[in-house]
Design a protein that fits this description.
By secondary structure, the chain is mostly helical. Helices cover about 75% and strands about 0% of the residues.
């Protein structure tokens, strides 16, 4: 059984994670190659590594494809960041990945 404290921690982490996509949404009119956008990709990668699991560049690339792959994940990202946020984040992640190969 989960304690109230654990539920609170999980809720906080989930909210912080989705806030990263709110920030992507605020950037989606920018070029995904823009330095600020690329720093946001790095921030996302670091957050995943710090709170979930080691997020290698390859794993991040796979996540980016999932974000824009349609379905509930895409909908959830677009719900917090605005329509097109998942696709924008995916493009930015692809650029980040290709620049580090």
């Amino acid at each position: 059984m989960m304690t109230a404290a654990l539920v609170s921690i999980i809720s906080t982490v989930a909210n912080e994670f989705m806030q990263l996509f709110v920030e992507f949404g605020q950037m989606k009119e920018m070029d995904p190659e823009d330095e600020q956008v690329q720093l946001q990709v790095r921030k996302l990668q670091d957050y995943i590594t710090d709170h979930f699991y080691t997020c290698s560049d390859k794993i991040l690339c796979g996540l980016g494809r999932m974000y824009a792959g349609g379905g509930e994940l895409t909908e959830n990202i677009d719900d917090v960041g605005g329509v097109g946020t998942a696709e924008f984040a995916s493009k930015a992640i692809d650029i980040f990945y290709m620049s580090r190969r």
